[in-house]
Amino acid sequence: MSKKTINIGLFGFGVVGRGLSELLQRVPEADVRIAKVCVRNMARHQGEAPSLHFTTDPKEILDDPDIDLVVELIDDAEAAYHIVKGSLERCLPVVTGNKRMLAHHLPELIELQKEMKTALLYDASACGSIPVIRNLEEYYDNDLQISVKGILNGSSNFILSKIFNDHMSHADALRLARELGFLESDPTLDLDGWDSLFKLVILAVHAFGVYVEPERLFNFGITHMNDDDIRFANEKDRRIKLLGLAEKLPDNRLTLSVMPHLVSRNKYIYSCEDEFNGVVIKGRFYGKQFLVGRGAGGHPTSSAVLSDISAIRYDYFYRYKRMHSETPLPRFSNDISFRAYLRFTSDDDLQLLQPEAIYERYSSETHQYAVARINLQRLHDVRAELIERRMFIAAYPPD
Amino acid sequence: MSKKTINIGLFGFGVVGRGLSELLQRVPEADVRIAKVCVRNMARHQGEAPSLHFTTDPKEILDDPDIDLVVELIDDAEAAYHIVKGSLERCLPVVTGNKRMLAHHLPELIELQKEMKTALLYDASACGSIPVIRNLEEYYDNDLQISVKGILNGSSNFILSKIFNDHMSHADALRLARELGFLESDPTLDLDGWDSLFKLVILAVHAFGVYVEPERLFNFGITHMNDDDIRFANEKDRRIKLLGLAEKLPDNRLTLSVMPHLVSRNKYIYSCEDEFNGVVIKGRFYGKQFLVGRGAGGHPTSSAVLSDISAIRYDYFYRYKRMHSETPLPRFSNDISFRAYLRFTSDDDLQLLQPEAIYERYSSETHQYAVARINLQRLHDVRAELIERRMFIAAYPPD
User: Fold this and answer.
1) Does B199 qualify as catalytic in the annotation?
2) pLDDT in tens, chain A (399 residues)
3) Could you tell me where the beta strands, DSSP code E, fall in B202-327?
4) In chain B, which among 29-58 make CB contacts under 8 A with chain A?
5) Which of A251, A256, B242, B281 lies in the 20 to 30 Å Cα band around A229?
6) Measuring CA to CA, which residue among B307, B331, B286, B283 is closest to residue B149?
7) Rounded to the nearest 5 degrees, what angle is found at the Cα of A146, between the Cα atoms of A110 and A295?
8) Do B303 and A285 touch (CB under 8 A)?
9) pLDDT range class, residue B53, cuts 50, 70, 90
């Protein structure tokens, strides 16, 4: 794209959209202009940004020949899918931050962008301001990846930080996060690990060349974490962190999961606090990388969006090199056993999990826990029951 | 570059050169072939890699029409300069890891690569496997940078880690680093902050668009750090880290310096241990980023070299966008005062530094120290004397 000023058509004017508009005013050198903004409710927005042209009709952007690029920043995943698809079909490059939409439609959109030779960039979708996707695509693209592990959700990490650093109760931390506007309108997206799961699906495509449908992954969050669990973590001098993990296994298999982990003090992730995200990337040759940055908020995320817009200016696109590798791609598998902390109320709860080995066992009048070896596929199979029985599970690797 | 196999001409076959050769065997998908290796002493290398073609004549590489790209990995900065210049003049893209050479010749080489429209990449030169330059160039290129601060030298960080974590004496830690081959043949490059200084000069070009000749910067290392300094740090619950710092000041000024810092526990850099490098990048919009990775060693660095080689395949080059910004570039300045810990033996030593304020003062029969406000320009002026008098200085920011 050799044009001087880039005219963007923006969908959505929430926290990130407004952040982008402010950022563009502060960085005139970027030479990016918001030509039109498409929102659901005109009345709500016109007052706050009188200089912008608002519309409710997507076609007013998609069919405007003066628009060079579409930026999609709306909440609704289904509507976002149609916007992104519609843009690519018209050879309009798109920048999107919608992880839920991407996690469900990536294969089709990758094909479409290839067919239409039109860029689709989405670095803001995973880990806000941390350039994880871009670095996996370009910088670590020749190494043999071993694992990608990290705190992928800022809101739940904020809550966990308040509990473990400031000794707030779970309920108070949740209340504070809500007051600060850190939680999505549906907080289970953050707290039950869905948001992390969508991001992990995206990262696995770039790190390992493998796309896995979100529903095939086990995800488990911190909604049912209680004071007993917090006490257990403190006793062991660990902190509970909600982690997404993609890891190569023997026999060229790949496992993906999102769940709480009991993290020991000597891990980088232990010190990644508040609304920050932190990702540890391991490769055969470069060893261990750790990237930390703000994972939420209008300014950090809009800064990532602007990086994508600028990249399109110099004709950058994701190459999905690992997806098209000549060596056989790893196969997704949940068939992995690991050491976990399990908290529950009855023996029957423990039986449900079919532990392969039990290392520790505690029971009191109020609750029980076990440290046991369990299988990820089994957890995936009984996920609904775990939640129904208000059990709590956290990976508990030996030191 | 659309050729399938890239034929590289490699200069130097030390730790990184050998690492690259091994890496290329492990990653055949990269499709990069070492066509020729130019070394100073043929006899030393031919035995260890019989499949490679060795030469001692640079022209055999530079004038070979079958070579697509030059990789320069030698120690000698002057010779490296001529190799890089010679390559660019012949329109041969170059990848180099020679920070000392780059720190001294960057402006000329930037002009030359522009004139010859030939890429010069050097991400491996600063922070080994951490893609700092690439991220500053591309990902954070639209943000208003505030500062870049970090552990830029792995060897000195290894020594400091052994002292502060494993309670080794300074002398023992130095010995261990030497035994493990972590120190350059001239260890003052690592320990006195020269290596960090060269990297900082390079980073400032990409973060702020400003080139500053290395001799204009104040650098000070850990050679004269002694047990009194270590005790002081431990008493204050801090760790001494050797940090490079580039920071925007009011009035569009920029300060650059390399010196020990007393780092408190709540900083990311506090936990960056052993031979790892860690860089904190602050921007107006994305906030704070922290990148950690191995800063030394054959495999991590060669992995960074291969990333640059691959980038040249898809015609990537540094844009030096900030250097060519329309807004006025910041002016380099040493005129900044800051709080520091100073350890010395006589009152006269303290007078030499012309402290602007003294906050703490200690004296015993063996040594004295002060916590005082001092000026960076003054330190630069009296640097040789500081070393002669075996004084120690560390930035000591309030918590």
Assistant:
1) yes
2) 656 899 999 999 998 899 999 999 988 888 999 999 999 988 878 777 888 999 999 999 999 999 999 999 999 999 999 999 999 999 999 999 999 999 999 999 999 999 999 999 999 999 878 889 999 998 887 778 999 999 999 999 999 999 999 999 988 998 998 888 777 777 888 999 999 999 999 999 999 999 999 999 999 999 999 999 999 999 999 999 999 999 999 899 999 999 999 999 988 899 899 989 999 999 988 889 999 998 777 788 899 999 999 999 889 999 998 998 878 999 999 999 999 999 999 999 999 999 999 999 999 998 999 999 999 999 999 999 999 999 999 999 998
3) 218-219, 238-249, 253-264, 276-283, 287-294
4) 29-30
5) A256
6) B283
7) 65
8) yes
9) very high
Q: Count Cα neighbours of A103 within 13 Å in the Cβ-side half-sphere.
A: 21
Please give the Cα distance from B56 to B42 (Å, whole number): 7
Residue B340 has pLDDT above 90, yes or no: yes
- Chain A partners within 8 Å of B137 (Cβ): none
List CB contacts of B278: < 8 A, sequence separation 6 or more. Answer: B150, B151, B268, B269, B272, B290, B291, B292
Pairing mode, if any, of strands A69-72 and A94-96?
Answer: parallel
Tokens 């999107």, residue? A96
Run of H or E residues at A210: none
Map residue A280 onto helix, strand or coil: strand
All residues of chain B having their beta carbon less than 8 Å from the beta carbon of residue A286 are 129, 293-294, 299-300, 303-304
**Strand partners of residue B132:** none
Q: Which of B183, B138, B140 is nearest to B162 (CA)?
A: B183
pLDDT at B1: 61
CA torsion sign for A307, A311, A313, A319 is negative
Task: Measure the CA–CA gap between A280 and A259, rounded to whole angstroms.
Answer: 16
Residue B2, pLDDT > 60, answer no
Contact of B375 with B336, CB cutoff 8 Å: yes
CA distance A197 to B99: 41
Nearest to B204 by CA among B247, B153, B242, B241: B247
SS3 B344: strand
According to DSSP, residue B138 is labeled: I
B23 contacts A285? CB cut-off 8 A: yes
H or E segment and range at residue B388: helix B383-388
Residues of A in contact with B279 (CB under 8 A): none
B237 Rama class: left (phi>0) / alpha (psi -120 to 50) / beta:
left
- Tell which B residues from 195 to 224 touch A, by Cβ distance under 8 Å: none
C-alpha distances in Å from residue B123, one per residue of A258, A391, B120, B300, B328: 33, 48, 10, 12, 26
- A292 token code pair: 């930390």
For B231, the token pair is: 């005790």
CB proximity A319 to B under 8 Å:
yes
How many Å apart are CA A275 and CA A160, to the nearest integer?
10
Distances (CA, A) of A9 to A47, A105, B178: 19, 22, 58
Structure tokens at B341: 């810990």
Q: List the helix and strand counts (H, then E) for chain B.
A: 15, 17
User: Residues, chain B, total?
Assistant: 399
Contact B264, B92 (CB under 8 A): no
Complex ipTM tops 0.95: no
pLDDT value, residue A327: 81
Cα A122 from Cα A375, distance rounded (Å): 33
Q: What are phi and psi of B140, to 5 degrees?
A: -105, 20
pTM: 0.92
CA geometry: angle B228, B229, B234, nearest 5 deg: 95
| A209: region left, alpha or beta (phi > 0 left; psi from -120 to 50 alpha) | left
